[in-house]
Amino acid sequence: DVSQWYETLGVPCNSDQETVRAAYINLVKRFHPDSKSSEADVNKFQEIERAYRNLQDKFCRERFNKNDCEGEYGLYYNEKNDEPIDHIAPQHRQYLSYAGIGSGTPYQRQKQHAKHKAAKAMENVTDFRINKMQDCSNKSLTVKESRKKAKDIKTKFGVDRLVEDLIQESMSKGEFDNLRGKGKPLKNLHRTHNPYVDFVTHKMNEVLIDNGFTPGWITLQKEIAEHRENIKNRLITDRAKIGPLPLSQEEQLFWEETKIRLAVEVKILNSKIDHYNLVVPLLSKQQFHFNLNKEAEKILQTEDSDDDCLER
């Protein structure tokens, strides 16, 4: 019963919420079990607490059930106002501002809009700096490429000019007067050559050959072939000094000593092959190292097979 709740708190039935609250506080000071008051009573305090909570619920329902006031977002206006409202802006008009950003109260929307503007400004600054750096980088690359191209052209013209000066100087000294075929048309002008050979190297070799000179890599190739053949002949000679397979212990020792003696020669030969591979103009002319153990084993087996054939 509502009247009993008011009576429990000791206030009139038409008391407002503030009066009820003040009466409740005074009663709590008197009857709360922890107040150390002589009137402290648990049952009485529970009754006061229950009456106060019920009245608070009553006030809450009355506040939300008012028919003469309506509103949203905590803003209210009186519907009974007879004044014309055509000139009054709708309450939600404020939520159409701030570029439609954010939610909540106008103050919250204002803060959210300010943060959004700051983030947008920072994004624009970052984009501007990135574009500026890209422009500077592109300009720098363009300048470097232009300088490199100009340097290459200058170097090319410088080399061409130097070669031309040397040719003219040699002609003035008469160094080309003793060339074979002087004053005659060039032979084999349209002679084909390997397309994988550098044209300059090809022409240099051609000039050397036409004038009785041999390119260095050809001479080195001949030396390598002779050196390789010499090592093989020495292996064959020493193989003839021992008997057929299987070799005895003394024969095996002799054969190993032969390979040890030839190891120095093989090292020199392989060094020549390395130098040859660096200067030869044709990739197909490259040579592999001489493998002493493999070649010795091949000769050892071959000579043994020849002996078997002779016995048969």
Automatic annotation (TrEMBL):
Q: Record's Gene3D superfamilies?
A: DnaJ domain
Q: Kindly give the SUPFAM superfamilies that the UniProt entry links to this protein.
A: Chaperone J-domain
CDD domains linked to this entry: DnaJ
The record's Pfam families line, in alphabetical order, gives: DJC28_CD, DnaJ
- Domain J: where? 4-68
* Name recorded for this polypeptide: Putative molecular chaperone dnaj superfamily protein
Q: Which organism is it from?
A: Panstrongylus lignarius
